[in-house]
């Protein structure tokens, strides 16, 4: 089997195993425009990238009906490069970045969908809001701050481990916050789970998963 026919099979296989109500974001970072087109040609439209420059380059080369998700940490000075076209920013991890996304979205007279990224991993290196910060920000949003931002839900990355109990603990923590915040105003998207842990994430309530290497192969 050639490597490129492999990616379509990987994709179709994963689609078969996830429930219909769970969105699959194909994480194409470090993979070619050609590979993205192969998945696109199956009818898939939602792709994720973690770097602004790479996202902009791919946006310019690929069909304009792709829904691009920015999933990596975003610097405030780079929001302007993606504000016109990005479908969703999954990695809103500070008040400062929300302020900037709001400002840039206003320039294009649009609303940009975001997920609040929550720190759920025990590891120190991960970006994300503390739970109390997320609650405060969401309250501000409900009070009318950030009018050109639409907070659609939450995103989290678990610790890099194959300890299933640990993963379940972290995903369940995020699901709990999602339900809590949804009491005030219903949130739609709970994005958690990657190639190695998405089945566990789904079992804990994820309705959006970000899968890269299980589709496109290992990144070099
Ligand atoms: C790279 C990345 C993914 C996908 O990781 P895989 O292990 O390749 O599936 C998901 N989410 C974020 C935030 C990422 O940076």
Can you tell me about this structure?
The longest helix is centred in the last third of the chain and has 21 residues. The chain is α/β, with parallel strands linked by helices and 220 residues long. It has a single domain, classed as Alanine racemase (TIM Barrel, Alpha-Beta Barrel), CATH 3.20.20.10. β3, α4 and β4 form a beta-alpha-beta unit. The model has no long low-confidence stretch (mean pLDDT 95). It is built from nine helices and eight strands. Bound molecules: pyridoxal-5'-phosphate.
Estimated structural class: alpha/beta
Number of strands: 8
Helix content: 40-55%
Q: Can you write the helix and strand succession as a string? A: HEHEHEHEHEHEHEHEH
Report low-confidence residues grouped into runs of 5 or more.
Answer: none
How far apart lie the N and C ends? 20 Å
List the helices and strands and how they pair.
Elements (H helix, E strand, L loop, with lengths): L2 H15 L5 E5 L5 H8 L5 E4 L2 H10 L5 E4 L8 H4 L5 E5 L2 H13 L4 E8 L11 H12 L6 E9 L6 H21 L4 E4 L5 H6 L4 E4 L1 H4 L4
Parallel strand pairs: 1-2, 1-8, 2-3, 3-4, 4-5, 5-6, 6-7
The structure holds pyridoxal-5'-phosphate (PLP).
What structural keywords apply?
20% strand; single chain; TIM Barrel; binds pyridoxal-5'-phosphate; 220 residues; alpha/beta; 8-stranded parallel beta sheet; 9 helices
Put the structure in a nutshell.
With 220 residues, this protein is α/β, with parallel strands linked by helices. It is 42% helix and 20% strand. It contains nine helices and eight strands.
């Amino acid at each position: 089997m050639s490597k490129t026919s492999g990616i379509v099979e990987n994709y179709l296989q994963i689609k078969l195993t996830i429930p219909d109500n769970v969105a699959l974001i194909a994480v194409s970072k470090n993979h070619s425009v050609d590979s993205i087109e192969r998945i696109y040609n199956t009818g898939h439209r939602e792709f994720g990238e973690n770097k602004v420059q790479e996202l902009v380059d791919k946006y310019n080369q690929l069909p304009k009906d792709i829904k691009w998700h920015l999933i990596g940490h975003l610097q405030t000075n780079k929001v302007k490069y993606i504000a016109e076209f990005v479908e969703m920013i999954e990695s809103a991890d500070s008040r400062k970045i929300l302020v900037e996304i709001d400002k840039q979205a206003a320039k294009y007279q649009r609303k940009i969908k975001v997920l609040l990224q929550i720190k759920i991993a025990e590891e120190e290196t991960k970006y994300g809001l503390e739970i109390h910060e997320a609650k405060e920000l969401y309250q501000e949003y409900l009070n009318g701050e950030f009018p050109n931002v639409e907070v659609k839900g939450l995103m989290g990355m678990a610790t890099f481990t194959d300890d299933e109990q640990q993963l379940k603990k972290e995903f369940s923590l995020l699901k709990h916050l999602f339900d809590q915040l949804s009491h005030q105003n219903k949130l739609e998207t709970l994005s958690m789970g990657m190639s190695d842990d998405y089945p566990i994430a789904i079992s804990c309530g994820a309705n959006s998963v970000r899968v890269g290497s299980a589709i496109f192969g290992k990144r070099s």
